[in-house]
Design a protein that fits this description.
elongated, 6 helices, two-stranded antiparallel ribbon, 2 strands, mainly alpha
Length: 133
């Protein structure tokens, strides 16, 4: 992956897209997150965020969302969670049991992002070719 593409991906704020997916109760593959097992808590969460449709959105204090980071290396975008505490360890364990991966984006979302950055990369490449910069 060229530095030009890497820079554009870094400017794309992919973590915001990941957070939006989670707010809609979706994992990194676009699948529904688990439902809340406690219906009373599920109704409370749904009332505060109807977009989640009763599915886990991983937002309580906001720490999970603020801990989502990503790095761009060679031909890979890797998402990670910077926080490591009892609650996040528990969430990881429960999500693994449910076969859900909260960190990352759907393949189609990456395709759309690539389409968005192509014109920007094209301009930068033309500048390099025409101006030697």
């Amino acid at each position: 992956m060229s530095n030009t593409v890497k820079k554009e991906l870094e400017k794309s704020h992919l973590e915001r897209i990941n957070i939006d997916n989670l707010q809609h109760g979706l994992d990194s593959e676009g699948r529904d997150m688990p439902f809340y097992s406690n219906s009373e808590y599920g109704f409370k969460k749904f009332a505060s965020n109807p977009k989640n449709r009763g599915h886990w959105d991983l937002k309580n204090t906001g720490q999970y969302y603020s801990g989502i980071k990503y790095t761009v290396r060679k031909d890979v975008v890797k998402f990670s969670q910077v926080y490591n505490n009892k609650k996040i360890t528990w969430l990881d364990m429960m999500l693994e049991k449910a076969n859900r991966t909260p960190l990352g984006l759907e393949k189609q979302q990456f395709i759309e992002i690539q389409k968005d950055i192509i014109p920007k990369v094209r301009i930068q490449i033309l500048n390099i070719i025409n101006n030697g910069m």
